[in-house]
Specification:
single chain, alpha+beta, 6 helices, 42% helix, 27% strand, elongated
Length: 171
Amino acid sequence: MLFMSGIKCLYILNGLKVYNIPQPKDWVFKPISELAKKNVLMVNLYYKTINRKPSELCGMNFDRVNLNEDGGYILTKEIANLKVRNFIEFGFYTAEELSKREDPWSIPDAPIIPSKEEIDAIKKYLKEHYPVLYKDSAQIILREIQEKERIHHRNINLIKKAIKIRNSVKK
């Protein structure tokens, strides 16, 4: 038996229709003409495989992307930098360190949380096409959402704490 990992990418349009997207080549995602200029929820599914077949869902990631005039998506360096902005701005600092910075503080970007309809569409798609991945999908979706919300609250609290520290120093 050969154990490996796999990634599957889905687009969800309006919380209803699910599109299976082939893996990108050089960060260029294959266009789907009917999705031209649409905003979709991109879902990356991370799973284990046995003999090249999905065997266990390990995680998920959610993102909202705007597709181009061909219905494609290109992950550029600029877009990638925006997607890790919260981590760069808040992941390496304590409140004390932030309070000493002179440059203006950023407000943390809100996490991408799928709607109930989008969650239902993910689960329905997995149940129909990948039942082995479906069995743990509800818990993994919940875990991923809770983790994103936890990190977001941590970042907000970090800024609040830094403001209190800065204000106490000014007095």
